[in-house]
Specification:
Elements: H1 3-7, H2 11-33, H3 41-66
Organism: wastewater metagenome
GO cellular component, one term: cytosolic large ribosomal subunit
GO molecular function: structural constituent of ribosome
Length: about 70
Amino acid sequence: MKVSELRDKDASALQQELLERRKEQFNLRMQQASGQLGRPDQLGKVRRDIARIKTVINEKQRSSEAS
């Protein structure tokens, strides 16, 4: 997911996206623990997506506080 796509979304959509990514991360961790994870790189991609989403949320909060 690109940062430019995330910046176009509003706060509620970002929160929803964050929730979905965290659920996906949980499922991937469970697959990894049981030895069924086919592509280990997916876990890293989801983790980075979560970080991007959190970064954009914080940017939006700081810009609204500064205004």
